[in-house]
Q: What sequence folds into this?
């Protein structure tokens, strides 16, 4: 068995980045900037004066994550599907490139694109806040929130690739979106199962909570706008949870992709 080559993984990742750039992913940023300008113009007219700044900051932080989600859903889930449709997959996985290197390279490239998009969206949003006079309560909290949001995007990139390895692009997009929303509601689902006190419902919600990623562990936005963060131990555990989930999803994706026939 050939060793996994960092060079080959990097080459595949670079190709993904070039493809995404040609696919005009920068248009997502243009759309985000337009929506942000409208929000900055309209929100002060409809929100209470003392809450406007907090709401605007929350929109900026949430918008960066949603930008990454949009790219992952609408372009990331097509990475493998496009190769299969064009039959270039046979050339891509030809020796000496292994299927593991192929998946890792695709994930690395998509992750870099999502991180750049999210960081650019965050920078645009924070710059747009300057004319409003909004004071950031704690830049450290904003920075930590951004780091955890990037971990979430890397996890979403892995999930998008997993579904792309299983099914076609449209269904993979729908499944990625479903995991995103259910991942942010998984704690609520668990609570509902306990409150209903129905054995099979409780068991179902417990299974969903175990299988689905608990994305709320990586969501610090609601606290960060007030300059508040969980304690260091909680942050470390949640960060390891996110990284561990990424590793598990990539291993599963590699396992499935290695057994596909083209």
A:
């Amino acid at each position: 068995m050939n060793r996994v080559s960092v060079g080959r993984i990097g080459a595949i990742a670079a190709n993904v980045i070039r493809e995404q750039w040609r696919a005009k992913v920068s248009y997502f940023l243009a759309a985000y900037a337009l929506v942000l300008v409208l929000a900055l113009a309209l929100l002060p007219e409809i929100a209470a004066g003392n809450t406007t700044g907090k709401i605007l900051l929350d929109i900026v932080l949430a918008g960066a994550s949603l930008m990454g989600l949009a790219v992952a859903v609408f372009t990331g889930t097509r990475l493998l599907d496009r190769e299969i449709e064009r039959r270039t997959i046979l050339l891509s996985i030809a020796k000496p490139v292994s299927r593991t290197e192929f998946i890792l390279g695709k994930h690395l490239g998509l992750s870099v694109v999502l991180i750049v998009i999210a960081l650019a969206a965050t920078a645009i949003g924070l710059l747009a806040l300057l004319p409003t006079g909004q004071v950031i309560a704690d830049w450290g909290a904003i920075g930590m929130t951004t780091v955890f949001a990037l971990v979430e995007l890397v996890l979403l990139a892995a999930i998008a690739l997993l579904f792309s390895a299983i099914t076609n692009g449209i269904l993979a997009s729908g499944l990625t979106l479903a995991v995103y929303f259910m991942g942010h509601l998984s704690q609520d689902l668990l609570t509902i199962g306990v409150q209903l006190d129905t054995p099979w419902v409780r068991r179902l919600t417990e299974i969903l909570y175990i299988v689905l990623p608990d994305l709320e562990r990586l969501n610090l936005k609601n606290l960060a706008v007030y300059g508040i963060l969980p304690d260091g131990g909680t942050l470390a555990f949640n960060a390891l949870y996110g990284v561990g989930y990424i590793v598990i999803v990539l291993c599963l994706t590699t396992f499935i992709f290695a057994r596909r026939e083209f």
